[in-house]
Structure formats: structure tokens, C-alpha cells
Amino acid sequence: NELFKVGREIETYKTKEELVEKIKYYLNHENEREKIAKAGQKRTLRDHTYEKRMVELVKIIKGYL
Length: 65
Fold this sequence. Notes:
Blueprint: H1 16-28, H2 30-47, H3 50-64
């Protein structure tokens, strides 16, 4: 929930039953599935790069020194 917008950039589930329900739903709603997949990929390529992760890691390490 902190890294991606649930239902817009990524999908989640809490139970096996919910997982199966969502799988069935998205298999029958290809446009919605594609929209979420593309939004998630776009967010990943923009915000979750190695460079940005290393900057965060350095800040964390400096906080322990």
C-alpha cells in the first residue's frame, strides 16, 4: 500500500478465496487487468529504480552510524 496504489497499480488479496475471485474477475475483464499492469509497470520504472533504492539505503545506513 505504501509503494503502489492498490487496485490501480497493483492488486492484492488476503485469502485464497479472494485470490481465486480476483483471478476470475480479471480473466473476464482484460481491459482493467491491462490498465493495472501498465500503471504498475510505469510506476516501477519511474519510482522503484536501483538508483532510488540505493539513495534510500544510504540514508538508512547513515542513520545507524
